[in-house]
Amino acid sequence: MVTVFDSADRETYFRFVSKTFRDVALFRYALQNFVINNLRTRYRKSFLGFLWSLLSPLLSMVVLAVVFSFAFKQDIKTFAVYVFTGLIPWLYINSSISGGCQTMIYAEGFLKKVYIPKLLFPLTLVTTETVNFVFSIISLYILAVAVGTTLSWTFALLPLVILITFIFNLGWVLILSIITVYFRDLTHIVTVVFQALFYLVPIVYPVEILPEKFQWLFYYNPFYYFIVLFRKVIYGTPALTWGDWLIPAGLALVLFLVGMYILMRRDRELIFRL
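^ that's the sequence the OP posted. Answer follows.
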């Protein structure tokens, strides 16, 4: 009898994460090409092309601002910017997580032909949505200038907020994309859940308008902390606290580490489930 020793069975979590990061670094040009191709495909044969990255959030914001400004009896100019500061990070999170469920499945053709680190495909999806999100931020700045809203100096901290949200989204996409390989209906469930969650996140209204006995519900919603952080950084008020940074950063780190752990446990099995 010959005993075969498989070093992968003894691979530690730290070694797996290190190896995955090294492999992604080696495939960085592939990542770049995947992202560019995704963006080109999304706006292929479109007359306005990449301008839709600016126009789409603006049009969505106009509809929401008009409807809810009348509902809450708010000045549409200031309320439009308020809605936009919550809407664009929500759309970023929503599109990343909802669209990310199918990433491993869509990557089947690559994964069955050549070796590519599986992290590359969730990374491609989230990076693509991040590029679109940056265009949305430009739309926000244009809107703020147009209505005469002054943005705070804390706006300069926005890249750090985007990085934290990027890691948060990547963690979700890693987890859900692996689960979807085993349970294909998850994509539809996530879409419905996010439609409901839209009204349970303070995007078009402040938490304070709700009775105090119901406000605790928002504090158990992880997406709440990201919307609040974006708003505080953009507006500069109320003042930022350590909790505003530590809670989203902690959520992002934990989700990403959990996602990498699930990927490590299912890494060799995924290819046979696709």
